[in-house]
Amino acid sequence: MYKKILITTDGSAVSNMTACAGVAFAEQMHAEILALYVAPEYQYPVYIEIIPPSYPSEEEYRIAMQRAGAEHLQAILDAAGKRGLPCQGLTTFADSAALQIVEVAKQHDCDLIFMGSHGRSGWGQLLLGSVTNKVLSHSKLPVLVHRLIKEPAA
């Protein structure tokens, strides 16, 4: 049914557990996996006149975020490898993670976006916003939302 599934991660424990569920789902579908980590764009310090020497350059920031992305994606790559599923990891940069997820899924011809929900409701969801809700409202592809019943231990 699904040939290529986009699985997102933000590196959190909830996201990692969701990613493992996504890999298990992909195995049932015999689908290829595209694992995605969206890093925030570099921000120049606008509140000061001179950039402090300890502040990372844009190049240093990008290198650090590529490294962090690779670390976050490794669990998905390992899980897919153990199941014999083809998997590619990708780290991208964007101010809006939700829009980037939708765009990457479209660019890479994915059939499904598999992502988690932290399960916030009420004011928590309203104040924090929800990447998952934004993906649901912007994606023309099917989005499978995995919701954990119990929060993982820290």
From TrEMBL:
**Which CDD domains does this entry report, sorted A to Z?**
USP-like (cd00293)
Question: Which intervals hold domain UspA?
Answer: 1-145
| A UniProt-annotated Pfam family | Usp
Which chain positions lie within coiled-coil regions? none
- InterPro entries assigned: Rossmann-like_a/b/a_fold (IPR014729), Universal_stress_UspA (IPR006015), UspA (IPR006016)
Which Gene3D superfamilies would you find in this protein's record? Answer: HUPs
**Protein family (similarity comment):** Belongs to the universal stress protein A family.
What is the protein name given in its UniProt record?
Universal stress protein
Q: Please give the organism.
A: Janthinobacterium fluminis
